[in-house]
Amino acid sequence: MSLHGAPSSAELVEAVREWLERDVMSSTEGRLRFHARVAANVLATVERELEVGAEQHTAHGERLASLGVADDAELARSIRDGDLDDRLDEVSAVLRADVDARLRVANPKYRS
Amino acid sequence: MSGADDLSVLLADRLGGATITELSRLSGGASRETWRFRANGIPRIVQRQRAGDERDMSIEARVVAAADSAGVPVPKLIATGTSDDGSAFMVLAAIDGETIARKLQRDSEFSNARAALTGQLGSALAAVHSMPAVNGLETVDPIAYYTEMLDNAIASGTGTPQPMLELVRRWLIEHRPRPVEPVVVHGDFRLGNLIVGVDGLRAVIDWELAHLGDPMEDLGWLCVKAWRFGQRPPVAGLGEYDELFSAYAAAGGGDVDADVVRWWEVLGTWKWAIMCILQASVHLSGATRSHELAAIGRRVCENEHDLFLALEDCW
C-alpha cells in the first residue's frame, strides 16, 4: 500500500476536476469558464496517465528495443539520418502504437 | 509598452486630431496587441507590435494595401506608422462579422454563408496569388524553418524528440513538389483569420505571416484537418476540394494539382504539430505561464494521428 495512504494522487486529482466541473464551470462564464474547462480537461489527462502510464511506458520501451534503439531521441535521430530506411514498415508500426498510446491519455475521443 | 491612455493620444495625433472614443483591447498575442476604437465615431481597429517583435509591421501594412488593390476583400488600411517607443502600428477599418470557426461551421445564422464560402475562398485566394510582389516579403523554406524551431525547442529542454514528426519530415522531403515561381501567399489562411457575415466572406485579415512561396501552400493550409474542428468536409470543415479548386481556377488562379495541395496539407499538419510544441514551450520557458498553453503540448498526438490518416496510402 502507498506510503501516503488514501486518497491516492489519482483520487486527489479527480476530486479537483470534479470541483472544477461541478462548481467552477457552472458559476463562471466567458473566458474564465473556458479556462476552467481547459483545466478540467488537463486533470482528466493526468488521471488517465496515472491509470495507464506505467503500463504504456513498459510497452513503449519494448517497442523501442525491437528497433534496437534506447529511447525516442535515438529513434528520432536514426530516422532523420536514414539509419532505419530499410525498416520503415516496422518503424511506422511502432510509431502508430506510440501515437495511439498518447491519444488514449491526451484525448481518447479523438480517434475516429 | 504604454497603455490605453498613451495609445489614445497617439491615435488622436496620427489621425489628424480625431476624437478617440471606446478604446478597448480585443486580444493580445505574444508579439502584438489588437484594439478597437472609434475615431470621430467611425469604428476602427489598431494593431501594434510589442517591443522585440522581429517582424516589421510596415511590410504587413503594404501587403494589406496591395491585397486591397488586387481585389482581395480586406479591411481598408487607414494609417500606419511608428509610436514614440519604436513599435509599429497600423489602423484599419473595423469590419463586423464572425471569426470563430466553430460558430461559422455550426450556427444556423451562417447557413447561407456556409453554402457560399468555399467558392468565395477559392476566388479570394486566386486574387491573393495575383498580387504583385510586395517589397520586404521573403521566401521561406517551411521544412528547414520548422525543423530549426523543433530542434531549438528540444535543445532548450522545452520540447522532446519527435520520431513520428521525423518520419513525416522524411516523407515531405522525398515528395516535395517541383519549385514554382513564388507568389505572395497569405501564410495563415483559415477560418480564424477571415471575417464572415451571414452573407459570406467579408474580409481576409491577419497578414503577419505573408511571404513569397508556392500558392498551393494557402490551399493546403485551409484544408488541414485541425481546422475542420471535427466536421467532415475537407475545406475548413465546410466544402469539398473540387469546389475550392474550380472556384480558384475560375477566378484566374490556374489549374490545381490535388497532389500538390495534399503535400501542403501534410506539411501544414506537421507544422501545426511543431507549433503545438512551441506553444507549450512558451509556458515551459516561463515567457508566459498558462495552463492553456501547457495543455496544447499534449495535442501533438492529434496531429500525429491526422498525419497517419493523411499518409495511409502515400508512404
Topology:
The complex is a heterodimer of chains A (112) and B (315).
Chain A: H1 9-24, H2 30-66, H3 72-81, H4 88-106
Chain B: H1 4-14, E1 20-28, E2 32-39, E3 42-49, H2 57-69, E4 77-82, E5 88-93, H3 101-106, H4 111-128, H5 142-156, H6 163-174, E6 183-185, E7 194-197, E8 200-204, E9 211-213, H7 216-222, H8 241-250, H9 258-284, H10 291-296, H11 300-311
Antiparallel strand pairs in B: 1-2, 2-3, 3-5, 4-5, 6-9, 7-8
Helix pairs in contact in B: 4-8, 5-9, 6-9, 7-9, 9-11
Walk me through what this model shows:
The complex is a heterodimer of chains A (112) and B (315). Chain A is mainly alpha-helical and 112 residues long. Chain A has one domain. Chain A has helices at 9-24, 30-66, 72-81, 88-106. The longest helix of chain A has 37 residues, at 30-66. The mean pLDDT of chain A is 96. In chain B, 43% of the residues lie in helices and 17% in strands. Chain B contains eleven helices and nine strands. In chain B, the strands form three sheets. Chain B has a five-stranded antiparallel β-sheet, with helices on both faces. A two-stranded antiparallel ribbon of chain B has the order 6-9. The longest helix of chain B has 27 residues, at 258-284.
Q: What is the N-to-C succession of helices and strands of chain B? A: HEEEHEEHHHHEEEEHHHHH
| SSE order of chain A, one letter for each helix or strand | HHHH
Biggest interface between chains: A-B, 30 and 23 residues
Please identify the top-level CATH class of the largest domain in chain B. Alpha Beta
In terms of quaternary structure, the protein is: heterodimer
Describe the strand arrangement of the main beta sheet of chain B, using strand numbers: 1-2-3-5-4
Low confidence ranges of chain A: none
Count of the separate structural domains of chain A: 1
Q: Choose one word for the global shape of chain B.
A: globular
Tell me what portion of residues of chain A adopts beta-strand conformation. under 5%
Largest sheet report of chain A: none
| Number of DSSP-assigned strands of chain B | 9
